[in-house]
Write a structure and sequence with these properties.
This is Aminotransferase class V-fold PLP-dependent enzyme. Keywords: Aminotransferase, Pyridoxal phosphate, Transferase. GO terms for molecular function: transaminase activity. The chain is built from 16 helices and 13 strands. By secondary structure, the chain is α/β, with parallel strands linked by helices. It folds into 2 domains: 146 residues, Aspartate Aminotransferase, domain 1, CATH 3.90.1150.10; 234 residues, Type I PLP-dependent aspartate aminotransferase-like (Major domain) (Aspartate Aminotransferase, domain 2). Helix 2 runs antiparallel to helix 12 and helix 12 packs across helix 13.
């Protein structure tokens, strides 16, 4: 029997739900950034009060600061099922992909090929396309213009002996379809092609087992997974060795500095372990104790997914059947994450979003950096209204959203 999520416990872990200025506001802009959990806020506060100095230096406070940063790397690695040396914390996923592109640019030669999709956020498309100026050939794995989906058969036809890298998304931030990452990475590996997976739109719904996925590089944004404004970048050790140190030459001995050339935000890195504190608390509240972080991650991911699916099914039915809304992406909740993008047929997305905001619905409208996807699907440059939620959303907020949509569309 599946365990039911205790929403009262969950929401007690997020100060935003106790904030008077947000009372009555239903939060449906989680794909742009989730609420931070209490543990992260507490760790950030503590760092600034007790250890706001240069970490790793000789003073005990400096040693404590460094130990907190190390612990954040260790705990993230345990939940992602990778080695601690493989976790890198940079300022954002966009910045992390830029550093990666510069690194690959040093080892690729003219004529080498990179495959990108037109389904991704521009952060995982534009940086690779920029390497064309160095003679790298860019191939595009294109979506079906009607559905926004990617077909693996189309990918296989793009592989050649010159293909060196495949960059794709775990889950689109617009159509929200979850791609079969493990299958795709297996095909790429068989073709001797490295993989970079953008997991930004997936990770907030449960941290993945990166080892099981088989990706050489996996990226996501911690601030969309209840944490600080950092980008998490998993680079498997073998791939890191190929790319080499991208930071100051004298930092070669420090693997965590290789792909963060600007240097880490000490406080945010230290505080990021609060996300895992929350996941631990969520696990222990619902399940019997276990020492396996991988098992905790699996259980928590399932718990969050099951809670979201119930609400997602209800919202998708409403949207898919509404005569004045066009749903982007699959109507089957089992195929997608809890991000629902819609196009109103009788007003602009911006007009609809404003009417929703006026009814205490926190949401947004636009292209959300997925311009190439929307262009491929023939969507006007006004974009979509995006309604995104996570496991802490409750049924009353879904009802509030649907009532607000009905009124705004009438």
């Amino acid at each position: 029997m599946a365990m039911s999520l205790d929403l009262a416990f969950v929401r007690s872990q997020f100060p935003a739900f106790k904030e008077p200025s947000l009372a009555g506001q239903a939060f449906f802009d989680n794909a742009g950034g989730s609420y931070a959990c209490q543990a992260v806020i507490d760790h950030l506060n503590q760092y600034y009060r007790e250890t706001k100095l240069q970490p790793y230096h000789l003073h005990p406070a400096a040693q404590k600061a460094g130990a907190q940063m190390d612990l954040a790397h260790e705990r993230l690695a345990s939940y992602l099922n990778v080695n601690t040396s493989e976790v890198h914390l940079g300022p954002s996923t966009s910045q992390n992909t830029y550093v990666l592109a510069q690194a690959f640019g040093k080892i690729l030669k003219a004529g080498d090929e990179i495959i990108v999709t037109n389904q991704d956020h521009e952060a995982n498309i534009g940086v690779w396309r920029s390497l064309q100026g160095r003679g790298v050939v860019i191939k595009e794995w294109r979506v079906d213009p009607q559905t926004g989906s990617l077909d693996i058969k189309d990918l296989v036809a793009l592989f050649s002996e010159q293909t060196k890298l495949l960059a794709f998304t775990h889950c689109s931030n617009i159509v929200a379809e979850i791609n079969p990452v493990a299958d795709i990475c297996k095909l790429a590996k068989a073709a001797n092609v490295a993989t970079v997976v953008d997991g930004v739109s997936f990770a907030g719904h449960g941290l993945p087992d990166v080892d099981a996925l088989g990706a050489d590089i996996y990226l996501f944004s911690l601030y969309k997974a209840y944490g600080t404004h950092l980008g998490v970048m998993v680079i498997r050790d073998a791939m890191a060795d190929k790319l080499g140190n991208q930071a100051h030459y004298f930092n070669k001995a420090y693997r965590h500095k290789w792909f963060v050339p600007a240097g880490p935000d000490h406080a945010q890195v230290a505080a990021s372990r609060g996300v895992l504190d929350y996941f631990d608390a969520l696990h222990d509240h619902h399940f019997e104790a276990t020492d396996s972080a991988a098992e905790k991650a699996k259980r928590v991911r399932s718990l969050m997914h099951d809670a979201e699916q119930v609400l997602l099914s209800k919202l998708l039915r409403f949207v898919d059947q509404h005569p004045k809304l066009i749903l982007l992406g699959p109507a089957d909740p089992a195929k997608r994450a809890a991000t629902v993008s819609v196009i109103p047929t009788e007003q602009s997305p911006q007009e609809l979003a404003q009417k929703l905001v006026d009814q205490s619905i926190i949401c947004g409208a636009g292209h959300f950096y997925a311009v190439r996807l929307l262009e491929a699907m023939g969507v006007a440059n006004t974009g979509v209204v995006r309604l995104s939620f996570v496991h802490y959303t409750n049924a009353e907020e879904i009802d509030q959203l649907m009532a607000a949509l009905d009124k705004a569309l009438s």
